[in-house]
Design goal:
The complex is a heterodimer of chains A (about 250) and B (about 190). Chain A contains six helices and eight strands, in the order E-E-E-E-E-H-H-H-E-E-E-H-H-H. By secondary structure, chain A is of the alpha+beta class. Chain A folds into two domains: about 80 residues, Beta Barrel (OB fold (Dihydrolipoamide Acetyltransferase, E2P)), CATH 2.40.50; about 120 residues, Up-down Bundle (de novo design (two linked rop proteins)), CATH 1.20.1440. In chain A, a hairpin with a 4-residue loop joins strand 6 and strand 7. In chain A, helix 1 packs antiparallel against helix 2, helix 1 packs parallel to helix 3 and helix 1 runs antiparallel to helix 6. Chain B has about 190 residues and is of the alpha/beta class. In chain B, the strands form two sheets. In chain B, strands 4-3-5-6 form a four-stranded parallel β-sheet. A two-stranded antiparallel sheet of chain B has the order 1-2. In chain B, helix 1 crosses helix 2. Chain B is globular and about 60 Å long. The chains are: A alpha+beta (about 250), B alpha/beta (about 190). At the A-B interface, strand 1, helix 1 and helix 6 of A face helix 7 and helix 8 of B.
């Protein structure tokens, strides 16, 4: 048994027994971890109100080799983001980012993914512009980092450079746009139409976004595409839970 | 599967009960007089048969409407909204509240796919007649509880009903020195004049 101390973001909490909590953490040095915080639900627990989703801190836990659930010994607050719960659109967007990390983060440590998630949650908390744009930009940053960047400038089937100024189709199965010539080869159910504006904005989103909080002209189309792309490539064709919640909040 | 294994298997389905504890409970029941074990079985059977959700407030009760909804001595102008029926016992046991209740059946959680449609929100809105003057949101002091409270404020306040939220901060009898930063910040934000 070894004592581990690492930066961690709380992704999700579960109540366990009468007084404890199980936390799913994304840690900087140990990847995704599950820890049990014994007594965390007692009113006078030493963890107090720290163990809430979206919170960053330094977690200290006893890691047992071969065990999946470790015992949390201390959690030193670094940054709390409970204010995300005070606005439903921000809460829903933060839920999407944490669900992406929770479900698709690799088992191995990934410091850049940890930092990117933290930057994304901070941005959602502080964004004074359009929250949906911020959510789309931050979600794509995570997806690109996880290695699922779609092809937005070359045809995903033949690899030919496609004229960026033209409307086109996005092939979910192919993982990117398809040129007019290859379009008949793609399965119809896998194709999503992209207007000229939607295509240009997708290129910007996949490159990291504008970061200025201005609303996207094709926000709805981008949200639908992100939902379908994640479902197809990362989530066994099922949309993430947080997408449904998000769509109900954003309309 | 033997009767012993069968019972242990049923026990192990309960929250917080593992295989070993399930067998320990089973063997305990084998040691006590048979009539005591049968009393436990009858109590479980009666609970499963008789306890239902109140069609007004969704509390768990043997009668419908439940004893809180039908008690004329309770304050009929205030509804306290809680996440689970078990929260009612905690609030009512405090002796500080004598109004009506409404059980949401959970809280908003994007990761679990729980939106307002999965909660008893429509039935709460249907209860907001001219008699109701205040809705007290008593969801847990967590991010999910806060988001649920925000949503309830958004849908209830436009109906002209006062919406209040339970105070957050230091526990009574606690020690400031050992309180965490989040709790102290909440207590400072919610400080009141003296």
């Amino acid at each position: 048994m070894s004592l581990v101390t690492t930066f961690a973001t709380i992704l999700k909490t579960y109540e366990y027994s009468e007084t404890s909590k199980i936390l799913r953490l994304l840690t900087r040095d140990h990847g995704l971890c599950s820890v049990i915080a014994k007594g965390a639900r007692r009113p006078k627990s030493r963890f107090g109100g720290l163990l809430e989703p979206f919170t960053d801190g330094i977690a200290t836990f006893y890691a047992k080799e071969g065990r999946e659930l470790h015992t949390l010994s201390a959690f030193e607050l670094h940054r709390e983001r409970q204010a995300l719960g005070r606005e439903l659109a921000r809460y829903a967007a933060a839920g999407l980012l944490t669900e992406i990390a929770l479900r698709f983060a690799p088992a191995a440590p990934d410091a850049e993914l940890f930092d990117q998630l933290g930057r994304g949650l901070d941005r959602l908390l502080a964004e004074s512009g359009d929250v949906e744009t911020a959510m789309l930009e931050e979600a794509w940053k995570l997806i690109v980092h996880l290695g699922f960047a779609p092809s937005t400038e070359r045809c995903s089937l033949c690899g030919r450079q496609d004229e960026a100024a033209e409307p086109t189709h996005f092939d979910l199965m192919g993982g990117g746009i398809v040129c007019e010539r290859c379009q008949p080869q793609a399965e119809k159910s896998s194709l999503r139409e992209l207007s000229r504006a939607a295509r240009a904005e997708l290129v910007t989103l996949v490159r990291g976004g504008r970061g200025d909080g201005r609303p996207l002209e094709s926000a709805r189309a981008q949200r639908d595409l992100l939902r379908d792309f994640v479902a197809y490539h990362l989530a066994d064709h099922r949309p993430l839970n947080s997408f449904r919640f998000l769509e109900e909040r954003l309309g | 599967m033997s009767v012993i294994d069968d019972l242990a298997s049923e026990f192990s389905r309960l929250p917080g009960i593992g295989r070993k504890t399930a067998y320990r409970l089973t063997h305990y029941l084998l040691k006590i007089p048979p009539e005591e074990a049968c009393r436990l079985a009858r109590a479980i059977e009666a609970m499963a048969e008789r306890v239902r959700h109140c069609s007004t407030c969704h509390n768990l009760s043997e009668s419908d409407p439940c004893e809180y909804c039908t008690n004329p001595n309770r304050d009929q102008a205030t509804i306290c909204v809680v996440e689970e029926a078990s929260d009612i016992a905690a609030i009512d046991g405090s002796g500080g509240y004598r109004g009506l209740y409404h059980v949401l059946g959970g809280c908003l959680s994007p990761l679990d796919g729980i939106g307002p449609e999965e909660l008893n929100v429509d039935s709460l809105l249907a209860r907001l007649n001219s008699e109701i003057r205040e809705v007290i949101v008593a969801t847990n002091p967590s991010v999910e509880g806060e988001a649920t409270a925000t949503y309830l404020h958004k849908v209830v306040a436009p109906r002209g009903v006062k919406v209040t939220r339970l105070a957050r901060g230091l526990p009574v009898g606690g020690d400031l020195e050992y309180a965490d930063g989040v709790t102290i910040a909440q207590a400072l934000a919610g400080r009141r004049g003296m």
